[in-house]
Design goal:
Length: 193
């Protein structure tokens, strides 16, 4: 075992987590519009892109997006790209949706940009430990394990680079933050003014 990996295990202590985690109440979490905290840097979860595309992103959140640095991850790009493959090619709106997703991906900074953070081996190790621990204690099946690995990659990336993850995915990011309270997450609600 490498000393870097041992350091990750010492920091995250996966063996100490044995009981299933319970979701926290909304009052225990940071939500756009209910907190005075204004992060300097936000790392967008895939939900942000989807909700902006669908015109569902809350107005309060739009003001915050303009006031903070937007950071991106190839993890979310991969999730958006996967949607293009999952869509029914015979559905009448598939082509339009794929064009919208392509436009969003094309507008994002390139991988060489200072606003795109590609997970490095340290982030992958940390995300693996976090997602594995969460899968074990929550009893996740194969599909949930894959999904939470992507969320753990975003969470670990944001923590390492001093960003706050912005997401409406309270379920997974709340639990990840319970496992590693040093990571920051800000949530938003659809339909919020």
């Amino acid at each position: 075992m490498s000393s870097e990996f041992q350091a990750t295990l010492r920091r995250l202590k996966p063996g100490k987590h044995r009981a299933q985690l319970r979701p926290r109440t909304e009052s225990e979490l940071e939500f756009v519009g209910t907190t005075s905290h204004r992060p300097a840097k936000l790392l967008y979860d895939t939900t942000v892109y989807i909700d902006i595309l669908q015109g569902r992103f809350p107005q309060q959140g739009e003001a915050m997006l303009r006031a903070t640095e937007a950071w991106h991850s190839p993890v979310t790009e991969g999730e958006l790209a996967a949607t293009c493959g999952l869509l029914d090619p015979t559905h009448s709106q598939t082509r339009e949706i794929i064009e919208q997703i392509a436009a969003v991906i094309d507008r994002r900074p390139s991988y060489r940009s200072y606003r795109t953070i590609t997970p490095d081996p340290e982030i992958w190790r940390e995300a693996g430990v976090l997602s594995g621990t969460l899968a074990r204690i929550q009893g996740y099946g194969r599909e949930e394990r894959r999904r939470v690995l992507n969320d753990a990659l975003l969470f670990a990336t944001a923590r390492k680079y001093g960003c706050v993850v912005l997401s409406r995915n309270v379920r997974d990011f709340d639990l990840l933050q319970q496992l590693d309270p040093s990571g920051r997450v800000m949530f938003y609600r659809i339909g919020a003014p």
